[in-house]
Amino acid sequence: MNILDKIVIDKRKEVALKKSIIPISQLENSVLFDRPTVSLAQALRNSSSGIIAEHKRRSPSKAVINQNSSVSEVAVGYEHAGVCGMSVLTDGKYFGGSLDDLLLARASVQLPLLRKEFIIDEYQIIEAKAYGADVILLIAAILSREEIKAYSELAKQLQLDVLLEVHNEEELYKSIMPSIDMLGVNNRNLKTFELSLETSKTLSRLIPNDFVRVSESGISNIAAIKELQPYGYQGFLIGENFMKTDAPGQSATDFINKLK
Ligand SMILES: O=P(O)(O)OC[C@@H](O)[C@@H](O)c1c[nH]c2ccccc12
């Protein structure tokens, strides 16, 4: 069994438990549920840098990155740096994140916030809205075409943007539909952790022009961005490169200044 299979098995148990404790009606009654959202896709279209900065304490591929980071401080630092959006890992077991992290980020910044989660149930999309997210991630490797369609349509109803993540041609073909706003190509294979920017380059020619293109993972310098821009990428999701430093916000500032 690969790591992604393990994560999904645990996630199904987690969601089943949560559903038995907090009913959907309670999520829908939360204060943030009616908050007007901000579009990340729009922010990326209007930006020249296109940086989406992630809050990530640890990961199965890298162990500890920044175990004790303060999500509020990081969020404020990222906003100050001029990023287009922030990604907040909410998985606890494998990434050390939580929905409280999302709430804290929401309380600290106006930026579009992406709930970075392994979504396998509609409940998690309603939860994302209730905890202040503007965008959800859907991972094609763990979803059928029917699920992608149902989940992305629900997200649109809730005014959430959808970032659909793919890693190969097959995943890309099954995911192309109008309810997707952004197509993310993950340079990291979630099953083997193998990393290569070539993935973004080879898949780019298969992505229809109306989707905002986001390249995800393994981006650690300006050269990588310059290399990917000619392939039509307008968004760049960066986690570890910022989070491994003592001041993620400052490293995002330095990075964006170099891009200008
Ligand atoms: O830390 P990196 O290599 O910059 O990667 C960030 C982000 O792309 C990565 O965390 C990620 C991309 N897709 C995911 C899906 C689930 C969990 C994590 C991810």
From TrEMBL:
GO MF annotation: an example: indole-3-glycerol-phosphate synthase activity
Protein name: Indole-3-glycerol phosphate synthase
UniProt entry keywords in alphabetical sequence: Amino-acid biosynthesis, Aromatic amino acid biosynthesis, Decarboxylase, Lyase, Tryptophan biosynthesis
GO biological process, one term: L-tryptophan biosynthetic process
Annotated Indole-3-glycerol phosphate synthase domain residues: 4-248
Enzyme class: lyase
Pathway it works in: Amino-acid biosynthesis; L-tryptophan biosynthesis; L-tryptophan from chorismate: step 4/5
Any Pfam family hit: IGPS
Family in the record: Belongs to the TrpC family.
Coiled-coil regions listed: none
EC number(s) given by UniProt: 4.1.1.48
Superkingdom of this protein's organism: Bacteria
The reaction(s) this protein catalyses: 1-(2-carboxyphenylamino)-1-deoxy-D-ribulose 5-phosphate + H(+) = (1S,2R)-1-C-(indol-3-yl)glycerol 3-phosphate + CO2 + H2O
InterPro entries (UniProt xref): Aldolase_TIM, Indole-3-glycerol_P_synth, Indole-3-glycerol_P_synth_dom, RibuloseP-bd_barrel
